[in-house]
Records
---
Amino acid sequence: MTVNHTNLLGLNLKGLETFFAEMGEKRFRAAQVLQWLHQFGVDDLDAMTNISKALRSAIAERATIEGPEIISDHTASDGTRKWVLRMAGGSDIETVYIPDGNRGTLCISSQVGCQLNCSFCSTARQGFNRNLSTAEIIGQVWTARRLLDKPDSRLQAVTNVVFMGMGEPLLNLEPVTDAIDIMLDDHAYGLSRRRVTVSTAGVIPAFEPLRSRVPVSLAVSLHAPTDELRNQLVPLNRKYPIKELLAACRTYVKDEARQKVTFEYAMLKGVNDQPEHARALAKLLKNVPSKINLIPFNPFPEAPYERSDDQTIQAFQNILIKAGLITTVRRTRGDDIDAACGQLVGKVIPRQGRRNSRETRQGMTA
Ligand code: SAH
């Protein structure tokens, strides 16, 4: 008989129901196990006391509970906490927790490295290794909750999840949506779908499958108001240009009255931060229900850009606000532990990447 070592962490409710059906067990076991794993954060079948000993050992013959290995755990001066987590195969990814008043946002990764080569992002320098599995994606939430939640508190530390760590979530759609199922499931994390945000550089063909499966909040990394400039910053734009991207955004939110798309815009000194860029952006987004989030550029070694000055960012924001667009400036969090946007590098064992990525890494460790 072959032993099938399913990782129970990677199964959503449906997956667990199938798992138990194949064992000839009742469906309701699925909800029980989901609750033990994700609400109570257990990592041991024997802790599941409403499941008989006989059934627990039958489960143990087929499955394991395998969370990620924690390689490091740092807390920044502002309370932002970053974990480096080791994945099977030896690559490391990063997960960041950002507390802010009553809100606690967990920023998770969807791939080991990234294929998109955005010119202002340090993850791009690491090349690409592989997609994360459902277990590896939800494992980040599971780990954070186990470390953050106080057992006697009814307040949950993680109130929001954003796919803004390493990787492009819409190039890893199946595992990402299966993991989102677990985030939204009331037997697991019970997050409302508005509190889960998928951030994409604009993989248009995945918008509709995402919306019909799990219509979570959408953030789009825009960064430029013209194709000419965006082609340089986000090479994926050559495949999916701005006009088509914005049409897809409109479609994504069309059935929902108050739902908006968040547009992320990294402020790069002298590159995309001038008043004419702001005016062009305002014109572009006039007919899209949108929020704009300006992200002061976070530097990394050998970055080819600088952060825009505060006054420049302020002036840019004012133009957008005057044009009627909701515009916020993202506060830089956790930069003293390299946990800010675009600073996540992990340790990618590259299979595909920029030709110069190896040289860059050597330069950094020398
Ligand atoms: N691949 C997805 C999600 C990962 S990046 C995406 O492109 O949306 C999360 C956000 O951080 C994106 O908006 C990205 O463009 C931005 N970002 C990347 N590098 C940055 C940097 N150095 N400074 C500021 N923001 C950056």
Note: The two ends are 51 Å apart (CA to CA).
---
Amino acid sequence: MEHRLVNLTKAANLIRNSNKICVFTGAGISAESGIPPFRGEGGLWNRYDPHILEIGYFLTKPKESWEAIRTIFYDFFHQVAPNPAHKVLAQWESDGKITGLITQNIDNLHAQAGSVKVYEFHGNCDRLLCLDCNKSYPSLSVDLKELPPLCPDCFGLLKPDFVFFGEGIPPLAYQQSIEAASSCDLMLIIGTSGEVAPANHLPHIAKRNKASIIEINREPSPYTKTITDIYLEGKAGELLPELNDLINLNN
Ligand code: APR
Ligand code: ZN
């Protein structure tokens, strides 16, 4: 049997036999939904300077920062939909296989696909927060023609409810993610370059707790040659349905 199929079969067996799977996703899982990743081929940071997402820049130049944020995140936000990768993970959760899904993504696609135990490590695009009165609004309910958007209640500055560089991780998501990574017997790492801390420590926590690690990516990451047990090279939107078919084949 060719190497690729051997790996796929081994991965499918691990997934079939586990009901304590922790999933850890990055921008790559949403690439086939049309959202560009941040790094690598077609990455956003090849076209924009990441400093537009630094909290200091946002607070001192909210209009300029919002202009880039609107283009990158909101202009087509409501046009994107979950792809087969998101849907397979939602199915495995309803089959009782997944104990927690930690995502670095702010695109809300896991929730839209039906995943429930989603820990949004970097927050979510779908709400805007008033920095003065702390009221939050669904982002689609706020008119982004005039920038920066102001709170309809107190005219305070509205900020997307996702984590900017220089901000802390939402405490509840942090705690839930550590718990999920510490108590799983299998971690699926899907579509992440593993470049950003502290999110990138989570797979190491799983490994330290003797979990097996399956990694899905289009190219190797810092995890591949260190903690990954089975590396599946390819697109998440194709590999997850393939794994799901293999699992169902032998049921
Ligand atoms: N299927 C699987 N993996 C893919 C696909 C795909 N179709 N397309 C791209 N990838 C992989 C890339 O090879 C890369 O390793 O997804 C990864 C995307 O990496 P990044 O763009 O760095 O995204 P991520 O790891 O989530 O970035 C972490 O950085 O900018 C911050 O806050 C932002 O949450 C983000 C964090
Ligand atoms: Zn307000």
Note: The two ends are 21 Å apart (CA to CA).
